[in-house]
Amino acid sequence: MCGIVGYLGTSEAMPVLFNLLKRLEYRGYDSAGIAIMNESVETFKTRGSVDDLRSIAPDIKGCTGIGHTRWATHGKPSSENAHPHCDCTGSIAVVHNGIIENYIEIKGKLIDSGHEFRSETDTEVLPHLIEEYYDGDLESSVQNALSVVRGSYALAAVSADDPDKIVVARKDSPLVLGLGDGGFFVASDVSAILKYTKNVIFMDDEEIGTIKKDGISITTLKGVPVEKKIEMIEWDPESAEKSGYEHFMLKEIFEQPDIIRETFSGRISADGVDLGLTLPDVKRITIIACGTSYHAGLFGRYVIERFARIPVDVEIASEFRYTDPILDCGDLVIAITQSGETADTLAAIRESESKGCEKLGIVNVPGSSITRESQCIFTRAGPEVGVAATKSFTSQLAVLLLLAVQLGRQRKVLSTADANEFVYELKQMSGNIQRVLNDAPQIKECAELFAGADQCMFMGRGANYPIALEGALKLKEISYIPAEGFPAGELKHGPLSLIYDGVPVVAIATEDTVYDKVLGNIKEVKARGATVIGIANESDTEIEKYVDYVIRIPDANQWIAPVLSSVVLQLFAYYIAYYRGCEIDKPRNLAKSVTVE
Ligand code: G6P
Questions:
Q1: Centroid of ligand 1 to alpha carbon of 254 (angstroms)
Q2: Is 88 noted as a catalytic residue in this protein?
Q3: Annotated catalytic residue: which of 195, 198, 359, 592?
């Protein structure tokens, strides 16, 4: 959802900015731009990718600059609408992530006072406003400009008058500053600057920072100085690189055995589960999330209700916040979010706080907004760069399993013996994921057969229903094949009408209490001509009689098998997109982190 970067230091800024932008491309990639401080502000921008920009930009010397990679909201992708945007004189340049809600009103006033606009964006009001308020000091001009702005922003501004300075500000959009040996870095996300430094400052809402050669100073929007903590990011910089894989998505799929081991590390023992925090004793839980994280939430409902016997509602964050939700003071609201920055999820958790609910985040990115608003359980998946979530999803499932066991033990509805037996199974999860990955060549062969499909259906029951939804989402996100996931029991209520000769149906038919029912559903689609790919346990000797192709997963507990099936479906989607020649890491129109409504 747009990425902003900046650099001020002793090296040439241009290569550093390109490097930072490449690492943020997953936030948006319809256009890109940079501004370098030379004798004046030299700006280059284009529709297209960071590589496109690199190929057209001349080599501009200068050790200070800002950059942007765009995911269009206001105004189509074009070089005019690409950032940086400048004031009338071209001496002030701004990159911005967020939305200026009152830009039409501000733009009207600025036009009346003689400002000339060149783009259709909301952002362009910012450099003109700064120009309007300019008093020789960039920081106070940004501060004054922001006092009339409504909306969200993470921004970086430079001015030709002050060539060794970058002013940054944040409200409701992420912004992190890096402190490296040879300079200072600005980025929307820590993973972009890891290569240069692990020492960072997370900007908070309504803060303005000034970066100069001799250091960084931060104040509130009202000018009150703020003491910020320098935090050390534990992520390995290598984990944000492709490391020889063709795509980040494939690399991230193959990281899952290690990630799951890390997610469980220090949290499971012979005595059960300890997530390192005391969970409130609540009567009801509401889970809120978007996209893939929402599917993890649906899985969470099944496991928490089963292990802890607490009723759980699962809500899409963008719906939840506008439905005047009925929450009781003391209910527990859990926000699941990889990025910790999804605007709707953050707004929903704030809404629940205002109703007196207990809050808990399940989050991947350290230092992200949600971590500063709520107690959190980290999924520990490391930086996820592929837009299609993979390792963050399975690590969310793993955390939800841990949470369910801890709540179950805490409420004494899960016996010590049952908890220990389950923990034993959890310990096998990482090895079992590895065994699924060892079968990637077979999944690839199967995917090749369906790469030309016009549509694809995914069905599962119980805890496999969210996995079917996620399988369909993965396929549509990266291969653009219309795909639908549904609970197999709902077939007769609609999805059957989509079945025709040869249409692929992926059926999750692992052994659990509804296995026989799923076999019945497979018969129903087979009878109408579907080609069925069954995901089944390795010991299942029946399944071949029912389906056309079988992909096996290791025999595992019925609450763990969905995690293994997820990995199969990730690979299935990946290889189909691969055979269709799709841009797997940068799917059309999508961004990894949706920081605007
Ligand atoms: C975007 C991403 C998805 C992600 C969703 C929620 O749509 O493309 O992969 O699941 O946002 O993001 P979050 O960071 O809150 O999990």
A1: 20
A2: no
A3: 592
Distance from chain centroid for Cα 244: 23
**Residues in Cβ contact with 489 at an 8 Å cutoff, skipping those fewer than 6 apart:** 461, 517, 521
Q: According to the model, what pLDDT value does residue 270 have?
A: 73
Confidence check: pLDDT of 555 > 80: yes
Supply the residue whose CA is at minimum distance from atom 5 of ligand 1.
291
Alpha carbon of 474 to ligand 1 centroid (Å): 12
For residue range 133-190, list pLDDT tens digits in order.
999 999 999 999 999 999 999 999 999 999 999 999 999 889 999 999 989 999 998 9
What was the pLDDT predicted at 542? 92
Q: What is the pLDDT of residue 280?
A: 87
Q: Supply the pLDDT for residue 584.
A: 93
The DSSP result for 16-39, as a single string, is HHHHHHHHHGGG--SEEEEEEESS
Closest atom of ligand 1 relative to the 477 alpha carbon: 8
Q: Which atom of ligand 1 is nearest to the CA of 291?
A: 10
CB neighbour class for 513 (10 Å; exposed up to 12, middle 13-18, buried from 19): exposed
Tell me which long-range contacts 349-355 makes (C-beta under 8 A, separation of at least 24). 349/288, 349/373, 349/374, 351/320, 351/321, 351/325, 352/286, 352/288, 352/325, 352/327, 355/325, 355/327, 355/329
Strands 207-212 and 165-171, how do they pair? antiparallel
pLDDT of residue 589: 85
Active site residue 359: no
pLDDT of residue 354 exceeding 80, the answer is yes
pLDDT tens, residue by residue, 20-47:
999 888 787 789 999 999 889 999 999 9
User: What CA–CA distances, in Å, run from 245 to 17, 90, 254, 588?
Assistant: 24, 42, 10, 21
Average pLDDT for 479-486: 96
The per-residue pLDDT for 1 is 67
Collect contacts of 105-111 with beta carbons under 8 A, ≥24 apart: 106/148, 106/149
* Averaged pLDDT, 334-339: 96
117, with CB counted inside 10 A (0-12, 13-18, 19+), is middle
Which residues, judged by CB distance below 6 Å to any ligand atom, belong to the binding site of ligand 1?
A: 290-293, 337-339, 342, 345, 387, 389, 590, 592-594
Token readout for 291 is 């996209």
What the chain holds in terms of domains, given with CATH numbers, is 3-238 (3.60.20.10), 243-427 (3.40.50.10490), 435-597 (3.40.50.10490)
d(CA 340, ligand 1 centre) in Å? 9
